[in-house]
Amino acid sequence: MNNHPTLADRILPSSLKSSIDLGLDRRNYGHFRLILFVIMLAITAVPAITIAMLGYSNYKDLLQKDEHIQLKWQLDGSVRAIEQMVDSLESVVQFAARRDRYTELTTDSNLRELFERLHRQYPFFADLGVIDQGGIQQAYYGPYDLQGTDYSDESWFKAVYDQGLHISRVYKGYRNVPHFAIAVSNYDPKTRQTWVLRATIDARTLQRFVDTIKTNASDDLFLVDDEGVLQTQSDYYGNVLGRSGVEVREGLWSDPSPEEETVLYGIGNINATPWSLVIMKKGYITQDDWRSFRSRLLLIFFICMGLSVLTIYLLVGLLTSLIRKADEIQIGMMQEAEHTDKLASIGRLAAGVAHEINNPLAIINQKTGLIDDLLQISADFDQRETIRLNLKSIDASIERCKAITHRLLGFARRTDVLYEELNINDIIREVLQFLENAMLYSRIKLELQLSDDLPPIYSDRIQLQQIFLNVINNAIDAIGKDGAITIITNPIAGEVRVVVQDNGVGIAEELLPHIFEPFFTTKETGKGTGLGLSITYGLIKKLGGDITVRSNVGKGTAFTITLPINSEKK
Amino acid sequence: MIKNTHETIKVLIADDEVEFSSTLQTRLNLRNFQATVANSGEEALRAVEEEQPDVLLLDLKMPDLDGLEVLARLKEEYADIKVIILTGHGSFEVGREGMELGAFDYIMKPVDLNLLIAKIEEANASG
């Protein structure tokens, strides 16, 4: 045998091998079944799970892309709308600050008239101020007394002086209402100096405008300054001038919020202002079509898996029971073959022993014969009769040995083998003639159920007689006194079957496998050689037939002998 | 009493068991047979040639030449010799083979002398 471990030996764990092993040991079917189940389930589940996951992630990607595009469009549109609004405000202020109006606006109540005209058209203007090149407010109309205020150090003043336009962050101004300011600068050719018109505007204007562009497509939309301070109200972060906590970074990005919902941010700078527009949108996971897709996917997946598990379970059960049955048949056949083998080798052994004993036995036999001859031809002397008696006793023992060895060889004084056409029923009747007296003596009732349709068989008469003699004798011995023997013959599948059953003591189950072994006997010592059934077995096998036994202790025993139609061909 | 009722029959006993063959020889000679002994197959073939026995009692298992081979060779040259196979190493199949090779009969050791004599006479008478 090759003891090198095979690839399977190395890969498989030992627990698995025991159930896959094809040896004679009984497998652990529970274990086998489990392994098979797991493997088959894996084969089914892995592709299913892979496909489901692929579908899931593809659809997720698709939704995310779609969402980004939508947000981008919305952001761009909203930024443009706000820029337009700022532009229009800016042009109003720029119109009011035409370059040569510096002198006009700083004299009399012209600024007041301008404000009132503006205010009629645009009620959100809160005040107006004219500032000269040195940063001193030369004229002011509004709720405060700010005439003469020096703005020269303010950063916004420097910015407007340099760039011509400045829009401020929202701040708390008049009556604690948030405002912002638009300042424009101009060069006045008459006075030959640059001057600035500054208008303060109610921040609610901004709010109203943001409200108009806010749609259901987004969850929150608001303006923040470059430090993240709210310029309009936010649903999430609260009122104007609160801190939004939003990182002001232009573009589209997402940020997982604490509730495990992804929030998408779209942030765009509003040109020429310190403001940025923030659009917040909850991630796709909270969206309906995503949810329904997910639940449908899960439903389909679990239904498929459920069906697979059920099918595999039933299939594995079926497979396991089939394998189990096959194993049982195989083991049964092997055991039977082993039994037959054992009987055959015991038979060979017995025959060998018999052969070896026959020769010395023959010598003893001849020697006693010679001594007897010599005694007969010699004159009478003392103890002569005693010696003859002892010789007779030796001869009797030799006869006993001879009976055993000859029976062991299944060969009792046979000289020729003769195949002829025979009727089994006739042979059984012949044998019964020999046994009539014994049965009568033991008060055994005989019941014959011999089939008339029995085909003639081509076999050996003497051997068949020996077979039936042994089996029926065995039945008589099993009964002892008072009982019944039934002999049934019938044709079966091209063969002849004979059943010899008795209602005797029966044979214990553990003894049944041994009854065809030589020298196996349940009879008391000296009563049987234990060779009868062994020889019968050998003879039947020789004729190509078969003998089986069924027995119940206390109920009886039945021997079934099957013989082929033509023994010679076997 | 030992019976001496027949004409003298020449019997050759071919058997490697000397104790057996010599004893049987003595006993047969006591009964008015002319018995000789051969202790091997080759010896048996020579003895047959020299003595021309009527009946050969042939053992099957012998050291040099197997009984069946002796039988086969004898049947080529001495077809009229009667051979009775007398062996302890018998079996159904070997017996049948011997009969097919032309043996008169097949007897298993140990055998009752009277029965053997009856067979020898029968074989001799069978012509």
Helix-strand blueprint:
The complex is a heterodimer of chains A (570) and B (127).
Chain A: H1 7-11, H2 14-20, H3 29-96, H4 102-106, H5 110-121, E1 125-131, E2 137-141, H6 155-163, E3 165-167, E4 171-172, E5 178-188, E6 193-202, H7 204-213, E7 220-225, E8 251-256, E9 262-269, E10 275-282, H8 288-377, H9 384-408, E11 419-422, H10 424-441, E12 444-450, E13 457-460, H11 461-479, E14 483-492, E15 495-502, H12 532-542, E16 546-552, E17 556-564
Parallel strand pairs in A: 12-14
Antiparallel strand pairs in A: 1-2, 1-6, 3-5, 4-5, 5-6, 7-10, 8-9, 9-10, 11-13, 14-15, 15-17, 16-17
Helix pairs in contact in A: 3-8, 8-9, 10-11, 11-12
Chain B: E1 10-14, H1 18-30, E2 34-38, H2 41-51, E3 55-58, H3 67-77, E4 82-87, H4 92-100, E5 105-108, H5 113-125
Parallel strand pairs in B: 1-2, 1-3, 3-4, 4-5
Helix pairs in contact in B: 2-3
Written account of the structure:
- The complex is a heterodimer of chains A (570) and B (127).
- Chain A is an alpha+beta fold and 570 residues long.
- Among the domains of chain A are: 64-285, 2-Layer Sandwich (Beta-Lactamase); 410-564, 2-Layer Sandwich (Heat Shock Protein 90).
- Helices cover 49% and strands 20% of the residues of chain A.
- Chain A is built from twelve helices and 17 strands.
- Chain A has helices at 7-11, 14-20, 29-96, 102-106, 110-121, 155-163, 204-213, 288-377, 384-408, 424-441, 461-479, 532-542, and strands at residues 125-131, 137-141, 165-167, 171-172, 178-188, 193-202, 220-225, 251-256, 262-269, 275-282, 419-422, 444-450, 457-460, 483-492, 495-502, 546-552, 556-564.
- In chain A, strands 1, 2, 3, 4, 5 and 6 form a six-stranded antiparallel sheet that branches. A five-stranded mixed sheet of chain A has the order 12-14-15-17-16, with helices on one face.
- In chain A, helix 8 packs antiparallel against helix 9 and helix 10 runs parallel beside helix 11.
- The longest helix of chain A is centred in the middle third of the chain and has 90 residues, at 288-377.
- Chain B has a single domain (10-112), classed as Rossmann fold (3-Layer(aba) Sandwich), CATH 3.40.50.2300.
- Chain B has a five-stranded parallel sheet, with helices on both faces.
- The relative contact order of chain B is 0.16.
- Chain B is α/β, with parallel strands linked by helices and 127 residues long.
- In chain B, helix 2 packs parallel to helix 3 (67-77).
- Chain B contains five helices and five strands.
- Chain B has helices at 18-30, 41-51, 67-77, 92-100, 113-125; strands spanning 10-14, 34-38, 55-58, 82-87, 105-108.
- Classes of the chains: A alpha+beta (570), B alpha/beta (127).
- The A-B interface holds A 351, 355-359, 361-367, 369-370, 373, 376-377, 398, 402, 406, 409-411, 413-417, 542 and B 1-2, 17, 19-20, 23-24, 26-27, 30, 87-92, 95-96, 99, 105-111, 113.
